[in-house]
Amino acid sequence: xxxxxxxxxxxxxxxxxxxxxxxxxxxxxxxxxxxxxxxxxxxxxxxxxxxxxxxxxxxxxxxxxxxxxxxxxxxxxxxxxxxxxxxxxxxxxxxxxxxxxxxxxxxxxxxxxxxxxxxxxxxxxxxxxxxxxxxxxxxxxxxxxxxxxxxxxxxxxxxxxxxxxxxxxxxxxxxxxxxxxxxxxxxxxxxxxxxxxxxxxxxxxxxxxxxxxxxxxxxxxxxxxxxxxxxxxxxxxxxxxxxxxxxxxxxxxxxxxxxxxxxxxxxxxxxxxxxxxxxxxxxxxxxxxxxxxxxxxxxxxxxxxxxxxxxxxxxxxxxxxxx
Amino acid sequence: xxxxxxxxxxxxxxxxxxxxxxxxxxxxxxxxxxxxxxxxxxxxxxxxxxxxxxxxxxxxxxxxxxxxxxxxxxxxxxxxxxxxxxxxxxxxxxxxxxxxxxxxxxxxxxxxxxxxxxxxxxxxxxxxxxxxxxxxxxxxxxxxxxxxxxxxxxxxxxxxxxxxxxxxxxxxxxxxxxxxxxxxxxxxxxxxxxxxxxxxxxxxxxxxxxxxxxxxxxxxxxxxxxxxxxxxxxxxxxxxxxxxxxxxxxxxxxxxxxxxxxxxxxxxxxxxxxxxxxxxxxxxxxxxxxxxxxxxxxxxxxxxxxxxxxxxxxxxxxxxxxxxxxxxxxxxxxxxxxxxxxxxxxxxxxxxxxxxxxxxxxxxxxxxxxxxxxxxxxxxxxxxxxxxxxxxxxxxxxxxxxxxxxxxxxxxxxxxxxxxxxxxxxxxxxxxxxxxxxxxxxxxxxxxxxxxxxxxxxxxxxxxxxxxxxxxxxxxxxxxxxxxxxxxxxxxxxxxxxxxxxxxxxxxxxxxxxxx
Lengths: 323, 516
Description:
The complex is a heterodimer of chains A (about 325) and B (about 525). Chain A has helices at about 15-45, 60-90, 95-135, 135-145, 155-160, 185-210, 215-245, 255-285, 295-320. Chain A is mainly α and about 325 residues long. With about 525 residues, chain B is mainly α. The two termini of chain B are about 25 Å apart.
């Protein structure tokens, strides 16, 4: 068997990586200034004294963030545009395309590990820390036996010790499974349906593309994007409910922050995924990109979408049903 | 594709060439090595005598923290990435890294990240002072305001590591020359493949843990605050789930380097190549299930102590395989002792000492005695300094002639070796004794009973520091006025990187070589 190697396209030098680094730096440097000054401000208000110093740039950090973020978006737009252009000009050999495939695959793996840290934290807090607090000796000595193992906890340890002056106040009730009778009004159920459906629709789009049926492809990809947007709308409504009717906040103890951090990071990923699919849809509709054997941009976005779907299933089980 | 290096400084800013990027990584790492070294010398100067002399305790804590962070993330990791950039494409017959622009992005994030980290020294409240392991609540509730900058610096350097690792994996899996099967790859390539996998697996977990800190500090969550149902011990679990693979990230490429150098100067092929590959993979696997051996004294259940103790001791098996193979490679070889070989032999001996003290620490019941003492400091400096740093130094001497086409001065190189060798042992060996006598780490003052050991350590540290200044001089002298090196450079060297001229042309293997 003969294996012939194609020449591999090594790009000319490029200004993009340096500008990407600069804009990334501006963004995080600004965020750090902003967060520090907000927190210092809050502390000073609580102490009811004159305002504490606000750090190097203080609230002006926001300008760094805006500047850096806009630059970053522009860099990415140019960068992806260039990569697409190179592909259209036929510079990308089959071997180079495999590099992109490996790149996307390992990127998704890194995202899986990021979520694992938060799932792991939820598991540890519920199954190790919390029972430990409720353990007879700890419970009796520190909390007069008031800690009870239940999820969501009725009160935080802070409340048991400090009563009304506690800063961590447990939620009124959780977002979890409320029995079959409530399924129809239970948003997480509908969001699960939406997201699972969207994984199917994106697959239908893919199959259509493989048959070079661009009309069907555009239709089903468009439906997928719409489902992503609906999901995000439902989640926004769910957050509103959680904060205003259930009393769930970032500072309402272990239940509150695990709920918001896990679903929040997932929501951000759904946003990213929807945006990526939307870009692919626009490319297909307005520029006629993608053929059955050349559609990496779409395929990579769809893998990402399936990954986001799988994470949601984890959330549905561990945050909602078991919550 | 025939483009050569661009003229002027823009060559370095905008480059997509793996050799340019490798050089930048290596120089950056060298600069950070000196910065972290200065922090270390401040520590050793303060500890020269008992009592408070030079710096106040808070600044001392900032020095221990910044020394660790800069050395781990700024010196050792970028040095190995630099070596990977230079050598992996040349070793597997690839024209460049798989994704050359992203490669340059990975590098250019680092100067910004470390500028931001170093700038915390000048901020109100001072730099991070909670140790490089940044345990909560020291790093949350009681942290200086600069912790926010530290968190974001970690975020972006993590992004850099992940992109760099994705690039290395894609290069190794996709860019090998025809005939270069996996089991024909040089061991340095193998160790980097596995290291890159570890990096992609654990850097996101590090990002996760600093994100939790950020939320705790600024947004009212209580991941690490028991008052809100969180747990400070959770921090340690998540951190060490990253942290333990991280220590193998800093040593596996070192294994690859000495596995290249010892066969060359013993003029024998590496003994037990395939067992080396399997041993590396086993170490990587075990690294995921031993993290709590850093936390034996924090109050984990007996079953946990036992599991993590035995799992940790298991690591001695594949590591023993490696040491055995290096020694057997040298056995009855026609050995010569050029500078890279001296550093590699010292690596084998001294790393083994660090391994043995690691085994002692792995035994949970006695770890209660050693925990947080200078014995731990002695242990991890014995695996990192003669382990990571010596192997990087050996790699530089070994490949520098190929990089710049000129030969270093052998006498100066050997002088550097003996000074560094003496300096490191004088610095770190006494720490075993002060540690066993229970001198606590990260404390600026100590009982007069430890005065002698500390004075010896401090003398050794300054000797070691001076040796590294000599190293810098040797490298510059080689580049400026070294004698021309041959293409083969070393009589016994094998591998694709020696089949190209010295210095290696700007583009190598634009058409892949045939590997038999």
